[in-house]
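Hi L.,

You mentioned the student needs an example of a multi-chain input paired with its predicted structure. This one should do, with 414 residues in total across all chains.
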Amino acid sequence: MAGARVDGRVARGNQTRRLVLGRTMDIASVEGLDGLSIGRVATELGLSKSGVFALFGSKEEMQLATIRAARAVYARRVVHPAEEVPPGVGRVRELCASYLAYSRGRTFRGGCFFTAVAAEFSARDGAVRDAVAAARAEWIGCVRGVIQEARDLGELRADVDVPQLAFELAALLEMANADSVLHRDDGGYGRAARAIDERLAAATPGG
Amino acid sequence: MAGARVDGRVARGNQTRRLVLGRTMDIASVEGLDGLSIGRVATELGLSKSGVFALFGSKEEMQLATIRAARAVYARRVVHPAEEVPPGVGRVRELCASYLAYSRGRTFRGGCFFTAVAAEFSARDGAVRDAVAAARAEWIGCVRGVIQEARDLGELRADVDVPQLAFELAALLEMANADSVLHRDDGGYGRAARAIDERLAAATPGG
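Structure written out for the whole complex:
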């Protein structure tokens, strides 16, 4: 019985944590991670400040938990759909298309979570910056990885510079997100898709 | 004499204003425009809070004045050097090179001022967001303008899609800035320069 009560408390705690992190991800995507405060989140969700505090212990821990939760969402929406496609150029295309759909569909209210918080923290120091940098490095590593696979399979030319092509594709994706969020101009999604097609065509054997 | 005293006060006021805006541009480039508060700026510069308040009247006015000052710096460092080169592909190249030098040389402590604050305010509403969006729109307009000139002169192919090419060049420039500021990896400057060369070569008649 004591075990069941503890399990019930843990389940409620986990549920509250998910509720809180859903809100903190949306706030951070619009206003940045600095916009998060335990008091504000508690008020918005009708929870007690002490209850939210007990879940995280500090504002910084809440920021870090928000980044981890956003990484999981990003993996599910952008990375996993590409992993369901066989390795090769098709997977590179799918990864780019998933990112554009993730940004355009406003998975997070303020567009791409990581673009929003990267600029906010990039020039600072500390654990939050390091977590943001690690998440972005993981993303760039993912883009490089799918390009490398495609090259290893002979679907991209052997002389393709993998970090260079990854840099160019990631730049186009982020620019489409920025145009849409800042200028409310969705034309960038088509421009990015067209430029990515051209880059991949040029990197294809005989292309 | 009364006129001279007033002139002296105005001159001192302008000097203080420049001092304050120099600091607020650096703070905003690292921590964003939300990092600005009249009290903080006064403390950091050893000025009275009421004196700084008298210069701007509100935090929002200080943010807007900071954006205007940063636009002037950006024009001087990025746009004007390109205007000193004759219209054509050379001016497009110079504009891109000036941006990369402006970012790499940390004209602002946190890298490109507008990239830093665009992500911060892009998903919000209000006068600060509008000013940031106007500054970025002006920049994209400038990139399109120099490409259009080059096309009109026949130095770029007649079928070059001007907004498309401007989107691609601006994306590469911003990505180089982001890599340098967030990952402290300056490799993006070379990657951006290489990709820009390739895009312009492909857009050149016979290219």
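You could point out the following to them. The first helix of chain A runs from residue 2 to 31. The radius of gyration of chain A is 20 Å.

Best wishes,
N.
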